[in-house]
Amino acid sequence: MNAEDRKRVLAGKAPVKKKPGKRDEAPPMTTGQSVMSWVKTIVTSLLIVMVVNGLLIASFVVPTGSMEDEVMTGDFVFVNKFVYGGSTPQTIPFIDVPLPYFRFPGIRQPEKGDVIVFIFPGYRDQVKADQFQYYLKRCVATAGDTLQVRNATVFVNGKEQPVPRHAKFDQDHAAIQPGDNSRIFPDGSGFSRDNWGPMRIPKKGDVIPLNDSTYYFYRIFIAREGHEVERNGQIITIDGKAANAYTVERDYCFGMGDNRWNSLDSRYWGFVPVENVVGTPLFVYWSWNTDEPNFFKKFGTIRWSRIFSGVN
C-alpha cells in the first residue's frame, strides 16, 4: 500500500483500485543505457567463454592431414584442457591474439601415445613462431627418454614402439622426400625423416655440454628457454658469460604425426615444452571439408560418419 492509499483508508475511504493488468512501468532506457546494457552482456559472455576455454574444454579445428586417419583435416574436436592443467585465457576469443597466462597444476603430464594439442614453438631456426598457432600431434617420447627412428620405426629407450592404429606412410604426399634432409632438426645433425637420433628428450635439470659439435644442435633450444647464446671463436657465451655447459630449465616431449611421411613435426622443428601442451582431444563433434570456399557447398562435404567419433 502506497502513501496515498494509506491516507484514504485513515479518512474512511477505499483505496484507489488499479485497473486490471496495469503495472507500474519502469521508465524506458535511454540510447546510452541500452548500448551499455549490450556491452555488459557481450563482455560477460566473452569472459565466460575465455574462462571455460582456458580451464576445462576448448574447441580445435584440425588444420592439416598430419594425423590422418586418426583425425582428418576439417575435423572439429573438443579438447580436454583440465587433464594437463588448465590456464588463464591464452588468447582473445575469435581473433587468437596471445595473452600472458598462468598455468594451473594438472592431473598428469603428457604420456607416450597421447594425442596432444600444443602451442607451436616455431620452425627449426626460429626462436619464436611467426604467429600463435595450435598444433596437434602424437606424443611419442617424454622428458628423459632416448628416442630413435630407424627405417621409419620408432624406438624409445631401445624398445620398439607400437604403430598407432590409423598410422599411414603416404609417399605420394610426403612432407620431405628421401635425401632432402636440409630441414631436419637439429641443424647439422645428419638425421633424416626415417632415421632420426638417437637423442635424449630434454628433462629439467639435464646438463648439456657445450662445444663445437653441440653448439649448433642446441643454440636455438637455449634461446627458446629465454637466453642469449653466442659464439665468438672458441668461446660460447650464455647471457654474456662464458659457458661450457647448459642446464635445462623445462621438461619436453616429442610430437610426431600418425601420417608419418606427411607430417612436419618434432623431427623438423624440435622439442615441445610440456608447459605448452594445452590438452588432449576427446571426440570429433563436426567434420567437413574446410577447403571448400563456398559456404553452402560445404554442407555437401559433411562427414557424418566422423561426428562423435573418439580420438585415441
Protein architecture, described:
The protein has helices spanning 3-10, 31-55, 212-224, 266-269, 295-298; strands spanning 57-61, 75-80, 91-92, 97-98, 115-119, 134-142, 146-150, 153-156, 159-160, 196-200, 207-209, 229-232, 235-238, 241-242, 245-247, 252-256, 272-273, 277-287. The mean pLDDT is 87. The strands form 5 sheets. A 7-stranded antiparallel sheet has the order 1-2-18-5-6-16-17. With 312 residues, it is of the alpha+beta class. The protein folds into 2 domains: 43-199 and 253-306, Umud Fragment, subunit A (Ribbon), CATH 2.10.109; 207-247, no CATH class. 17% of the residues lie in helices and 25% in strands.
Summarize the structure.
By secondary structure, the chain is α+β, with helices and mostly antiparallel strands.
Chain-wise SSE layout:
Blueprint: H1 3-10, H2 31-55, E1 57-61, E2 75-80, E3 91-92, E4 97-98, E5 115-119, E6 134-142, E7 146-150, E8 153-156, E9 159-160, E10 196-200, E11 207-209, H3 212-224, E12 229-232, E13 235-238, E14 241-242, E15 245-247, E16 252-256, H4 266-269, E17 272-273, E18 277-287, H5 295-298
Antiparallel strand pairs: 1-2, 2-18, 3-4, 5-6, 5-18, 6-16, 7-8, 7-10, 8-9, 11-15, 12-13, 13-14, 16-17
